[in-house]
């Protein structure tokens, strides 16, 4: 088997030199172990944080060891009860073609019509992040105006659709006309191209002249500042991520931070793991919408294990529309 490992820790945007494709031994299975041929690998922005040697909500990746991340695949060989060749499974031993480990590392995918890779996107971690971030963290309600950044991405595209299904008015921002067209196609009432000429604040003001009740932050920086400037009294911010700063060494600067005080804003950070105990709720509602054909699942696919570091790096320059995936 082959796996990508982290060769050195990047400062700024990771380059090809920080990754190495290495052979890993295919040892015979021990009792209780399963061997899986991965079919889809996920690359996610949070992996950038794990490349730094700092304490966080997930431990850093070790140097010169296989990287990990979400993946789905098919069981090839099993010495564990409950798993048989042909079973489709979800697990965290990604960045490699073949994953071997104890049965507890693997979760069987439900039978049904959903394509396997949806469990890495809309019906998986990013979808859960959108669902609970919007509805539980920000407590967004029908009739309210929601602003979401990176709205053409995995989490953002789910936020747009959930908010519309729940009767909210939605403004999404994304980089470029094509992505904005997609955001509108997903149901958003307005889409802002943050890369086009003009200030983000004036664009947001034009899209939501009454201000916003909820901001779902995927980006941070200027997006966060614009949301602060346009927030109505008692608005709630679901602080999901700040991708703008993941490769930056600059301090975050906000001109409108004092509005948190004056407008009595609530900014609440969250990690999707906080909601894993409510997965059944998520699967019932999102799974129901998906089965009823009410959800779109945009995705960008790169082919082959070799493409994994590039696919990951492209997240930071908007190279993906919808969920970024590697197909093996
Ligand atoms: P996306 O699919 O949204 O991919 C990242 C997107 O971010 C890019 O396509 C790009 O879109 C945008 N982007 C990248 N750099 C910048 C920049 N400098 N300024 C503005 N936009 C930028 O990724 P995910 O949906 O997986 O993740 C979205 C956010 O959610 C991230 O911040 C991530 O860390 C966070 N997250 C948090 C979780 C939690 O538990 N709190 C769980 C999962 C994700 P564009 O072309 O529009 O610029």
From TrEMBL:
Q: Which InterPro entries match?
A: ADH-like_C (IPR013149), ADH_N_2 (IPR041694), ER (IPR020843), GroES-like_sf (IPR011032), MDR_fam (IPR045010), NAD(P)-bd_dom_sf (IPR036291)
Q: A Pfam family matched by this chain, by name?
A: ADH_N_2
UniProt keywords, alphabetically: Oxidoreductase
What positions does the domain Enoyl reductase (ER) occupy?
12-326
Q: Which segments of the protein form a coiled coil according to its record?
A: none
Give GO MF terms, alphabetically: oxidoreductase activity, acting on the CH-CH group of donors, NAD or NADP as acceptor
Q: What is this protein called?
A: Enoyl reductase (ER) domain-containing protein
